[in-house]
Amino acid sequence: MNNRVRVKVCGITSAEDALAAVEAGSDALGFMFYQQSSRYVPLEEAAGIMANLPPFITKAGVFVDASREAIDLAISCCPLDVIQLHGSETPEMCANFSRPVIKAFRIAGEESLGLLPSYQTSAWLLDSYVPGQLGGTGAKFNWNLAVLAGRLGRPIILAGGLTPENVAEAIRQTRPFAVDVSSGVEFSPGRKDPGKMREFIHAVRTA
Fold it and tell me: Is the domain defined by 6-205 classed in CATH 3.20.20.70?
């Protein structure tokens, strides 16, 4: 069994950052198609970035309460491998896409875990709950809740407040399928720091 923890760098906005993340060892890249995000990237730009990536890099499109039509349009424009839904999408909305679906949850406490089993998606992404914000906040949540979530039958992707300094401990505590980082490896929202990405991924690989 391969227990290697995968790494996704999310909030990619430029070809330079995408290639730096790949060079650092990232397995997957996330592209934010939510226009109100400071890490938003238009479909045409994202398609251009993806076209220049090496093979075997997973490309995830991140959506927040987007319509089915908008998501299908993104799939037709960009070579997306995975759909990540980060809003208040219902279990029915998450079903029957032509790509695997990751459903993201903002975890406020143990009661938040009650929603997870209703979503029979390919994986669950656990992020921090910050009132009025949908992710990329840098806030950390109680990793013990991720341990509980891991017993519910789906691969767990850990996000929320991960940095080069704490990701190894997060992995040791929670044993996730993957970790997802955005603000923890940035100069500023949407601008990645190549050095931090290398440090982060090195910490994951040696955890």
Answer: yes
The H-assigned helical ranges of 40-193 are 43-51, 68-77, 143-149, 167-174
**Catalytic residue from among 10, 78, 94, 180:** 10
Q: Which of 17, 27, 78, 127 is catalytic?
A: 127
Amino acid at 140: K
- pLDDT number for residue 111: 86
pTM exceeds 0.90: yes
* Integer Cα distance of 40 and 60 in angstroms: 13
Q: Residue 125, SS3?
A: strand
Catalytic residue flag (residue 94): no
> What does DSSP assign to residue 56?
T
Q: Return the closest-CA partner of residue 113 out of 72, 149, 137.
A: 149
Please count the CA atoms within 13 angstroms of the CA of 200 that sit on its side-chain side. 31
3-state secondary structure of 17: helix
| 27 flagged as catalytic | no
Express as a percent the part of the chain with pLDDT over 90. 83
